[in-house]
C-alpha cells in the first residue's frame, strides 16, 4: 500500500483532474437536452413560424429534433479521424488544449442560437461540439494512461468515465424546469460547459506532457525524465520507468500508417478485441435508456424527470464503484460481470415490458431493472471500453487504436440514437432481446480472447500479442487468451 501512496503526487492528480474536465463537458451536453426537449422543440417551431407564417409539421419537428440530438454523435464520429494526427504531432496534453477550443466555440454557438432566432446555429453548435467529443474522449485516456503508474493506470483511466457520468447528472439537474430548463434560460443552460473549459485552459498548461510521448515519439530523454520526476516525485521510480520505456521503444515501430495498423499481424487480435468490446458496450442498450429514459418513464410516472435523475445518480455511483474495483478485480473480470449482467437485465426488460399492460404494478420493477442495467454497464463495459485499446497496443499503434475506439463508440451511439425509436415501434418489448444478444456475444468473445492487463506494463502486454501471431498463448493470470 505504501508503494501506491508514493505514486500520488500533486502533479499527477492535478494532471488527471485537469484532463477529465473535457469529459465533464461532454457528459453535461449528453444529459442537459433530455428534460427540456419540448421547450427547445417549441423554439424550433416558433422560429419556423416566424419565417414561414405556419407551424412546422409534427413529423418534421420530430425529425429535426432527433437530428439535432444525434448530430453531436455524428460530429464525434468525424472528430475521431483527427486523433492520430493531433496526438503524434502536438503531443497528448497539447492536443487536449487545442481541441478544447472546439468546445468553447460550440457552447458559444448554442448560446447564441436563441438570440439569433436560428435553430441552425444550435445544430451547428452541437456539430462543432461533437468534433470536440470525438477527439477528447480518445485523447484523455491516452494522456491519462501514459502519465499514470502501472498499478494505478486503470483506476485513473476510469476517472474519465466518472467525470463523464458526473457531467450527465449535472446536465440532467440543469435541464429541469425548476433549474435552467425553462423558456427563458435554456440557452444559458447550454453555455455552462464554458466554465470547465476555461478552468482547463488555466490548469492543464501547468501539467507535464506525457513522458512516453517525449521519449518514444520525440526521443527527448531529458525532457521525459523531468516530466516523469514531476509526476512521480521519486528518482528511483523514475529510473525504473525510463528503463521500461526504453525497452518498449526498442520494440516499437515508428510511423505506423492506418494501412499498416490494420495489416500488421500482431495488431489483429487487439483490433478484434477493441471492435467487439466497444460495439458490445454501445449496442447493448445503455445508450437507448440514457437518451430516452424521460420518455420511457413519462408513460407510467407523473414525475418522470426526477426518475431520470435517479438514472444519472446510479450512473455516477457505479462509475465510482468501478474506479475502486479496477485495480483489484481487473479489467477482464469486470467486463465479463458487466456483459452477462447487461444480458440478464435486457431479458428482464423484455419480460416486464411485455406484461406491463396486464400488470401495471410492475412499473416499479421496470425502473429497478433499468437501474440495474445502468449499474452493470458502468461497472465494466462503460469505462473499460474507452481505455482498453490504450493498454492492448504499443506506442506507435496507440493513437490509431484510440481513434478507432472513438469511432466505434460514437458511431454506435449515433446508430442507436437513429434506430432505437423505429426498432422500438417495430419490435416493441422484444427490441431488448437484440441488446441481450449483443451483450452475450461480447461476453463470449471477452471470455475466450481477452488477457488480463491489470498490473502489467505496456511492453509486457504488447509482447504477448507480438509473440502470438495466431499461436495459442497463456497469459500471466493463467487464462487461455487465444484458442
From TrEMBL:
List the record's Gene Ontology CC terms alphabetically: sarcolemma
Alphabetically list the UniProt keywords. Answer: Cell membrane, Membrane, Signal, Sugar transport, Transmembrane, Transmembrane helix, Transport
* PROSITE patterns per record: MFS, SUGAR_TRANSPORT_1, SUGAR_TRANSPORT_2
> Where can this protein be found?
Cell membrane, Sarcolemma; Cell membrane
Q: Which reaction does it catalyse?
A: D-fructose(out) = D-fructose(in)
Membrane topology for this entry?
A: Multi-pass membrane protein
Q: What Pfam families does its record include? A: Sugar_tr
- In which family does this protein belong, per the annotation? Belongs to the major facilitator superfamily. Sugar transporter (TC 2.A.1.1) family. Glucose transporter subfamily.
Name of the protein: Solute carrier family 2, facilitated glucose transporter member 5
* Source organism of the structure: Myripristis murdjan
Amino acid at each position: 500500500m505504501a508503494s501506491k501512496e508514493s505514486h500520488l503526487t500533486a502533479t499527477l492528480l492535478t494532471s488527471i483532474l485537469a484532463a477529465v474536465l473535457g469529459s465533464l463537458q461532454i457528459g453535461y451536453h449528453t444529459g442537459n437536452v433530455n428534460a427540456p426537449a419540448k421547450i427547445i422543440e417549441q423554439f424550433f417551431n416558433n422560429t419556423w413560424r416566424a419565417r414561414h407564417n405556419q407551424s412546422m409539421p409534427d413529423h418534421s419537428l420530430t425529425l429535426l429534433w432527433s437530428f439535432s440530438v444525434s448530430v453531436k454523435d455524428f460530429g464525434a464520429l468525424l472528430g475521431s479521424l483527427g486523433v492520430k494526427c493531433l496526438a503524434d504531432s502536438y503531443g497528448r496534453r497539447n492536443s487536449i488544449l487545442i481541441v478544447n477550443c472546439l468546445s468553447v466555440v460550440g457552447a458559444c454557438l448554442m448560446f447564441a442560437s436563441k438570440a439569433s432566432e436560428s435553430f441552425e446555429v444550435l445544430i451547428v453548435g452541437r456539430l462543432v461540439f461533437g468534433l470536440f467529443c470525438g477527439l477528447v474522449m480518445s485523447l484523455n485516456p491516452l494522456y491519462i494512461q501514459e502519465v499514470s503508474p502501472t498499478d494505478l493506470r486503470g483506476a485513473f483511466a476510469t476517472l474519465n468515465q466518472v467525470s463523464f457520468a458526473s457531467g450527465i447528472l449535472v446536465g440532467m439537474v440543469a435541464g429541469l424546469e425548476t433549474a435552467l430548463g425553462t423558456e427563458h434560460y435554456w440557452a444559458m443552460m447550454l453555455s455552462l460547459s464554458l466554465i470547465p473549459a476555461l478552468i482547463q485552459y488555466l490548469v492543464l498548461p501547468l501539467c507535464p506532457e506525457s513522458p512516453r510521448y517525449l521519449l518514444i515519439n520525440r526521443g527527448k530523454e531529458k525532457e521525459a525524465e523531468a516530466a516523469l520526476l514531476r509526476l512521480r516525485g521519486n528518482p528511483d521510480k523514475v529510473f525504473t520507468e525510463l528503463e521500461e520505456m526504453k525497452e518498449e521503444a526498442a520494440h516499437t515501430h515508428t510511423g505506423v500508417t492506418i494501412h499498416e495498423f490494420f495489416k500488421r499481424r500482431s495488431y489483429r487480435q487487439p483490433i478484434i478485441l477493441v471492435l467487439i468490446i466497444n460495439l458490445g458496450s454501445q449496442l447493448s442498450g445503455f445508450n437507448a435508456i440514457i437518451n430516452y429514459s424521460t420518455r420511457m418513464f413519462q408513460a407510467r410516472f407523473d414525475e418522470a424527470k426526477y426518475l431520470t435523475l435517479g438514472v444519472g445518480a446510479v450512473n455516477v455511483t457505479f462509475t465510482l464503484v468501478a474506479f475502486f474495483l479496477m485495480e483489484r478485480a481487473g479489467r477482464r473480470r469486470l467486463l465479463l460481470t458487466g456483459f452477462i449482467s447487461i444480458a440478464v437485465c435486457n431479458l428482464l426488460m423484455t419480460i416486464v415490458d411485455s406484461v406491463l399492460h396486464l400488470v401495471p404494478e410492475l412499473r416499479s420493477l421496470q425502473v429497478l431493472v433499468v437501474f440495474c442495467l445502468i449499474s452493470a454497464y458502468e461497472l465494466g463495459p462503460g469505462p473499460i471500453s474507452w481505455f482498453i485499446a490504450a493498454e492492448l497496443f504499443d506506442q506507435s499503434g496507440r493513437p490509431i487504436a484510440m481513434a478507432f475506439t472513438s469511432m466505434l463508440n460514437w458511431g454506435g451511439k449515433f446508430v442507436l440514437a437513429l434506430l432505437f425509436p423505429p426498432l422500438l415501434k417495430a419490435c416493441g418489448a422484444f427490441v431488448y432481446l437484440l441488446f441481450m444478444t449483443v451483450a452475450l456475444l461480447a461476453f463470449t468473445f471477452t471470455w475466450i480472447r481477452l488477457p488480463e492487463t491489470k498490473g502489467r506494463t505496456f511492453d509486457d502486454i504488447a509482447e504477448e500479442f507480438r509473440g502470438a501471431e495466431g499461436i495459442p498463448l497463456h497469459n500471466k493470470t493463467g487464462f487461455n487468451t487465444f484458442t
